[in-house]
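Deliverable D4.2, example record:
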Amino acid sequence: MPALKRKTPAINLLPTDEADASLKNRIITWLLGSFRFLVVTVELVVIVGFLSRFFLDSKNADLTDEINQKKALIQSYLPFEHDFKRAQARLATFNTYAYSKTPFSDYVSLVTKNLSSDLQLTKIDYSATDFSVLVVGKNEQNILSFVTRLKKETPFTQMNVVSVEAVPNSELIQAILRVNLN
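Output generated by the structure prediction step:
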């Protein structure tokens, strides 16, 4: 017996016109369309972000190279900068002494003028407020006569003897004299 031909069922996945009319189907259709648009927009943002990464990486590398070059240039000027600042400090010190009321050289010339041959001038300190001298001699009498001669000079009338002591490992005596210049 021959097989009967079966009728193939027709499958229609397209909604019928009456299904489009329901509110539920309209909301689902709108949501699916909106989400498609949202997915496409997110994919475009991701693609733009991925492509801009290459541009930004190259820009970052260029900026890093430029910063390293400028850093090396600045570091090459560093020794000159230190020398310049030291010279500025020395010039400031020089201006302090050169253009003060009484120049430093005047004080030194007064001290050396009154210094006897048996005394030795070891150290002179000068600031805006005071002037100090370290003198070394063979005995206290020579230092005392030096102090009295200096006290006769105008800027040294208020001279104080800070200390008188023996020089270690020597027969010499040292004295520190200080004058307040105010």
